[in-house]
Amino acid sequence: MIEVRVHGRGGQGAVTSAELMALAAIDEGQYAQAFPSFGPERRGAPVVAFLRVSTSQIRIRSKVYDPDVVVVLDPTLLDIVDVAAGLKPKGLMVINTSKSFEQLRKDYGFKGRLAVVDATRIALEEMKVPITNTTMLGALIRAAGLTRLDSMDKPLAGRFGKIAERNKRAMQRAFDETQIKE
Amino acid sequence: MAVRKGMEVSIAVSEAVKLANADVISAYPITPQTHIVEHLSELVADGELKAAFVPVESEHSALSACVGAAAAGARAYTATSSQGLALMHEIMFIASGLRLPMVMTVVNRALSTPINIWNDLSDIMPERDTGWIQLFAINGQEAVDLTLQAFRIAEDPRVLLPVLVNLDGFILSHVIEPVEMPDQEQVDRFLPVFKPVMRLDPDQPVTYGAFGSPDVYTEVKKQLEEALVGSQKVVAEVWKEFRSIFGRNYKPIESYKTKGAETLLLTLGSISETAMSAVDALREKGRKVGLIHIRLWRPFPFKEFFQAIREAKVLAVVDRALTPGGIGGPVGLEVKSALFQKADRPYVAEFVAGLGGRDLTVELFSEMVEKAIGYARKGKEMRYEMIGVREK
Amino acid sequence: MAKIEALHPWKEVPLGCAILEAGNARKFKTGDWRSKIRPKTDYEKCIKCGLCWIFCPDMAYGHREDGYFDWNSDYCKGCGICARECPKEAIQMIAEEE
After folding, report:
1. What's the CATH number of domain C28-95, 3.30.559.30, 3.30.70.20, 3.30.1490.190, 3.40.50.2300?
2. CB contacts < 8 A (A, B)
3. Is C20 in the B-facing interface, judged by CB distances under 8 Å?
4. Contact criterion met (CB < 8 Å) for C4 and B216
5. Are residues A34 and B175, on separate chains, in Cβ contact within 8 Å?
6. Of the candidates A23, A60, A63, which has its C-beta nearest B176's C-beta?
7. B155 to chain C nearest CA, in Å?
8. What are the boundaries of each domain within chain C?
9. CATH superfamily placement of domain A2-181
């Protein structure tokens, strides 16, 4: 079982990204569980969503405390939230940032595997809005391989309807452009 | 064909109510039940469900509307949580006392004060005595299945009692997970059209909700009690038929790895799954531990309970509500009373945990098991222990 | 005092304590609440307006075929509202003989 924690700000779709990933995994015949860190949240407040993906039935309902993967949708969170808290020793961080690996390790002390992409730039170019949740799914799939990329087609169509295409493009670009370093 | 898909459990429950072809839905929104009734109102507005959606100004009215609808012979449904359920309280007794079938989903949420929107069982426990049949779901699939079963159980002419299905607020209601949604054909085979035994009909007038003087009150209550206790037999039949159509098995007390277990965790609701993971971890270390969870809370299945615990020396009961000033939590109270007359009974360690949505982890369950075993060994006399209280 | 007939054994209580016989409240002859005064109508003065029938809180007046209103001793509780409301003062409250 892989446990993922997604960090975002209220309104950026952190919960949606966890949900879309879960739907894709379930469509593939896997088991998945996606849920927000529940609570009343206003737009812009730091929020957290959780995702579990497994080939067998998932029997844990608590929050994710030691994730295998941490996803950061908004680079400004790096300065105010301890996004790496509980991350397993060989864990993976998938970060929306324009900083280099060296800069990230220097500024925040991140160890372990890093996957980075400038999702904000891609989202602005493909969708004209800096909402990076679907873009970052491309990075997550590329780095963690929880599902196939094309398994996202149906969930994206179901959630976004007419604007699914541009979300898919952004996701594909992030998939292609993500850089990974051990 | 039944379809397995990822769904938010609240939406899955609404879809189950749609499959059950409810006639009247009356509800008032309250977190975390909202998604269920919002989706139902959309289904009705879009014409996908032919029902009367009666918006009301409070939960008291919501349940009252269901009482009226059921009395008129309609298949009635509502859903609520926490304060909403508390507000329905006086009507709860009326619904069962009038012997009206209806179904309610209770999305379990802590009772105020302080105001808390997160999950525990303090909303449902005070409703034990209302004469309703009460079931607990531990995951999304069960939430769907129990909802369908609830209508069938309620409407059986030998039962004619309201049924409620509990599912944990947020932890179940707002999670997306795989659910196998049955198709309409299967549901229609399982759940026939509601045929009321008696109803309000101007051509054959009867009076519902009459006065009952001291000369008759006792007999009416006796009749209700016998119906509630007797309903367990019908529940078993319904579950048998459910299995034959849908392939999934349900029991009043569910056992997990209890064979050869000396210590059993006892839980209700979705924490049971997390507790099962703790049992797995402990079993891997060679510990003789198992779990039972209560699916049928009312009427309490004494026979099945004694059967499930027959090998156990220690019970670690996990309550998610308190009965303040009493012996501990409501489940512990039930268990201890049930065991009172048994000459040979296990040690009961009772824990009150996870109040107001405080997270229960696999580690905490393991900790409770270890504590229970330790207390049993010492023969410690205990009422209950509150887990995780900050003392400093 | 009216006698309650519903002393069913518990198995025979109607479902949910419902009352199955429409209008059986009629069997309660609440007239025995009356404490020995009763209305008496002077039909010479009566103009058949029906106000006694309308105002009676116990429906203890019946409408006769000839248009006059009959007092029903089974249900009259002797409240005197009919006497007070009659526009022709045709109704008197009198002591009731056995």
Report:
1. 3.30.70.20
2. 70
3. yes
4. yes
5. yes
6. A23
7. 14
8. 28-95
9. Pyruvate-ferredoxin oxidoreductase, PFOR, domain III (3.40.920.10)
- pTM across the whole model: 0.93
Q: Is the pLDDT of residue C1 over 60?
A: no
The domain made up of B3-246 has a fold known as Rossmann fold (3.40.50)
* Cβ separation C10–B226 shorter than 8 A: yes
Distance CA A21, CA C14 (A): 56
Residue B313: closest CA among B369, B256, B382: B369
Q: Supply the DSSP string of B230-270, one letter for each residue.
A: HHHHHHHHHHHHHHHHH-----SEEEES-TT-SEEEEE-TT
Angle between the N-to-C axes of helices A14-27 and A133-144, in degrees from 0 to 180, rounded to the nearest 10: 50
Put simply, whether A56 touches B (Cβ < 8 Å) is no
DSSP characters over B197-209: SS---TTS--BSS
- pLDDT tens digits, A109-142: 998 899 999 999 999 999 999 999 999 999 999 9
Domain range summary for chain B, segments of one domain joined by +: 3-246, 253-386
Instruction: Report the residue of chain B nearest C17, measured CA to CA.
Output: B220
d(CA B150, CA B145) in angstroms, rounded, equals 9
What are the tens digits of pLDDT across the range C38-97? 999 999 999 999 999 999 999 999 999 999 999 999 999 999 999 999 999 999 999 987
Nearest chain B residue to A17 by CA: give it: B176
Task: Kindly state the tokens that stand for A59.
Answer: 């029997």
Q: What is the ipTM of this complex?
A: 0.91
Is B203 part of the contact surface with chain C (CB cutoff 8 Å)?
Answer: no
With beta carbons less than 8 A apart as the criterion, state whether A155 and A20 touch: yes
Judge whether B3-246 and B253-386 match in fold: yes
Q: CATH second-level architecture of B253-386?
A: 3-Layer(aba) Sandwich (3.40)
Q: How far apart are CA B26 and CA B53, in angstroms?
A: 6
**B118 to A22: CB separation less than 8 angstroms, yes or no:** no
